[in-house]
Amino acid sequence: MATSTKARARKAKPIAQNEKLGPPLKWAGGKRWLIPHIQAYWENYNERRLVEPFCGGLAVALGLRPEQALLNDINAPLMNFYAWLKKGLSRARLDMRNEPETYYAHRERFNALLMSGRGRNKEAAELFYYLNRTGYNGLCRFNSKGEFNVPFGRYKRINYVKNFGGYREIFMGWEFRCQDFASLPIKPGDFIYADPPYDVEFTKYAKEDFSWADQVRLAEYLAAHEGPVVLSNQATERIVHLYEEAGFSLQFLEGPRRISCTGDRSPAMEVLAVRGMENEGVGRAA
Predict the structure, then answer these.
(1) Paired strand residues for 258
(2) pLDDT of residue 193 exceeding 80
């Protein structure tokens, strides 16, 4: 049963001086634009734990601000960065310059740490932040060897953050993991928001690919969850069919991305698939 408005107001976590803190990273395909649509479902369940099997740049978690969250991603360097933010990465001492020589030197050092099994230390976290802010278009891509291979970004100006202390308070009740989504310790009442890799061909986001078989496995996993579920993905024909067959209610939205291959820069259509909640028709778009 949905909680009352008054009860939700009591249970919602107060946001202190760090209210305006947004995602600490640039993130290609970030879902900040989707937050109002997800919020329409979340508002009836905001006393529950938020679970994100593919948390990415944390736009949704930081937008919803749950008191308890289980945030997971298969991208190990990304999750190492969040782990250090939770510990209190407050004084980054890395030399951060918006120039190709520094960028490629730091990229080489970062890959050396990854290849030597030292990718979980503080230096690796700081390097990951720098590479993310300085690399091309906020991309995070690795080759088959597991090496970060994003080129220099050529931004005119970058404001690098040196003190991440504000995130420590926000992350207090959040748990970060790096594992396959199917092995997460989910509770029946958890509110799950899943934003898997798009059903398109793309350069690897992690050393492992996310295949169509994984898309099917995810749909089955989400359909089996007893609590509320929201999924977002590109509205390809087979993704739409997959979630219709799994019993989800579908909402179609024009995403901020553009499909350049059509020649007319058409908006990319996204699908929001929901299941297991009372207000599945909220915000439905044709």
Answers:
(1) 267
(2) yes
